[in-house]
Specification:
The protein is mainly alpha-helical. It contains 18 helices and no strands. α1 runs antiparallel to α10 and α1 packs parallel to α11.
Length: 550
């Protein structure tokens, strides 16, 4: 057994041992009172009071009725402290989310173009930067590093002061980091359009441009640690664990993956999928789960079902996710033990997935009627359900029997979108609907556009995912049939690829509705409504010197 095998096997066995030690320590109460930690995100008298700034007054009434009797309001001191915490993040969060929405629109258009090219390959071939080999990587990178990353950063920075009950410290570092990040995304996109690429999926940006993202990502993490030192809470809520881990893990992952000259040949391919999976599981997943664990109980006005179960989900994710990417190389020229370890670790992911699924389902159980009244909850609960579905599907795809059919097919593309769009993007949409009224001190001007956005992206994504999954599976079976030519396997997918473009078109339309509503709110267009977004009428009077305007 060589050194590399020993290290990886030892790491896996150590993770198993650490998991059992962690479970034992929780059973002995070494992690403190879970009940107290679960209620840390609420004010002293806030339990039982719903909160959704995206809801209208009528929806707020229905939401509160669905959840039962209202508790006493927070004290004036608590309300003012929370308002100051929200205000301390308003500039940097507003900038990050605005840029994220811009990248979302551009990424959606690039994705729709690349989707159409799969069944109409001669379309727009006269423009080099619109050829599939360039526009598809542009779409991927704008989604991953433009929309998803900046939305995640904006949501995480807004959550930090709320979770720690203090004002944000070091916002200037996040602003500088976000600026460097956006410059890197813009420069990298232009480079790919001009034909300059490192040629690795998820890592197409030239390494010189990647430096901007590494430095920017590191700077964005500073406010978390600086604010953590000023915290005014006794317990660190689980969302802090997820945010801290994500902001620590990503710069390290990105730096190692993009270090010039560090990886060659088979090792480079192994590293590519080590990064490709870890950017999903150790960057987007922690931020998405951090938001879910905050907003679901916050909107409902009730604590998470089991705080200890939430910690189990976090630590088992940290223990087992790092090596799951190897199953993308089944059948490749890499050692079979590496693939086997990856498959085993993929199956071990059932622990954090079911921990999250049971915890969040039990929190909402009995209160599903609240989804009819809460725009935030509608997006985030759907996203949480998609997290469970995507994770279970991913573990099954790691099995050799399933991977033999699905590998190198559109089925894998559908699965990737289930995770990054069905889970993460849906959670980000819901989070932004909650956050922006607090950032702008203004409500969403056209509530019906929130519902239109939801149904467009839901129906569009359902068409996209279902039809692409069916087409991808049939494609895989055709490629395994020795009597079917490769071009016949391609022809089988054409109607499903056309359906994909229809679904993608609806999703893009939904994004345009979302972006138009976002900027209408930013410019304070539309009806003047100040009510549901405010913490209380008395607070509005103290902050603005005016009463509530209906």
């Amino acid at each position: 057994m060589d050194f590399t095998v020993s290290v990886l096997l030892g790491t896996f066995l150590l993770s198993i041992a650490a998991l059992f030690i962690f479970i034992w320590s929780m059973s002995k109460g070494l992690f403190g009172d879970g009940v107290a930690a679960a209620t840390e995100i609420f004010g002293k008298n806030e339990l039982g009071t719903v909160e959704d700034p995206a809801a209208t007054r009528t929806q707020m009434g229905g939401l509160q009725q669905a959840m039962g009797n209202v508790a006493e309001r927070m004290t004036e001191e608590e309300e003012e402290s929370r308002a100051r915490a929200d205000k301390s993040t308003s500039l940097v969060v507003g900038v990050c989310l605005t840029l994220a929405v811009v990248w979302l629109v551009l990424a959606s258009l690039a994705g729709l173009i690349s989707s159409i090219k799969l069944h109409a390959p001669d379309w727009l071939v006269q423009y080099e930067w619109l050829t599939f080999g360039r526009i598809r990587p542009i779409h991927l990178n704008l989604v991953a590093y433009g929309w998803c990353s900046l939305a995640g950063v904006g949501v995480a920075i807004w959550l930090i002061p709320r979770l720690l009950k203090t004002e944000l410290v070091g916002a200037k570092y996040a602003l500088i980091g976000g600026a460097l990040w956006s410059i890197g995304v813009f420069a990298g996109t232009v480079a790919i359009g001009m034909g300059y690429s490192d040629g690795l999926e998820w890592l197409e940006y030239p390494w010189k441009i990647d430096i901007l993202l590494v430095v920017g990502g590191a700077l964005v993490g500073f406010p978390l640690w600086l604010t953590l030192l000023q915290r005014k809470v006794e317990h660190l809520y689980v969302s802090v664990w997820y945010i801290g881990a994500g902001l620590l893990w990503f710069p390290i992952l990105f730096l190692i993956a993009n270090w010039p000259g560090l990886h060659f040949g088979v090792q480079q391919a192994t590293m590519n999928w080590w990064f490709g999976h870890n950017v999903l599981g150790l960057w987007f997943t922690p931020i998405g789960l951090a938001a879910s664990y905050y907003f679901i109980p916050k909107v409902l006005g009730k604590p998470i079902h089991s705080y200890n179960l939430s910690l189990l989900g976090f630590w088992s994710l940290a223990f087992f996710y790092s090596q799951v990417g190897g199953h993308h190389l089944i059948g490749g020229p890499i050692p079979s033990w590496l693939v086997t370890i990856s498959i085993v670790q993929s199956m071990m992911m059932a622990i954090p997935v079911f921990a999250v699924a049971v915890n969040q389902h039990m929190t909402v159980l009995g209160n599903f009627r609240a989804l009819a009244y809460s725009p935030t909850l509608r997006f985030i609960v759907l996203g949480a359900m998609m997290y469970t579905a995507a994770s279970i599907q991913g573990s099954l795809e790691a099995l050799r029997a399933v991977n033999t059919v699905t590998h190198f097919t559109h089925y894998t593309i559908a699965h990737a979108h289930l995770g990054l769009y069905g889970f993460f993007s849906m959670v980000m949409f819901g989070s932004i609907y909650f956050i922006m009224p607090r950032v702008m001190n203004w409500e969403w001007p056209y509530p019906k556009l929130i519902s239109l956005h939801f149904w467009l992206v839901l129906i569009g994504f359902a068409i996209y995912f279902i039809w692409l999954s069916i087409g991808g599976w049939l494609q895989g079976l055709a490629m395994l049939d020795e009597n079917t030519t490769f071009m016949q396997s391609v022809a089988i997918t054409l109607p499903y690829l056309e359906a994909r473009s229809i679904g993608g078109g609806l999703m893009t339309l939904g994004h345009l509705v979302f972006a138009a509503h976002f900027f209408a709110m930013g410019w304070k267009f539309g009806p003047k409504r100040l009510g549901a977004a405010l913490l209380s009428n008395s607070l509005l009077s103290r902050l603005t010197g005016k009463g509530v305007t209906a």
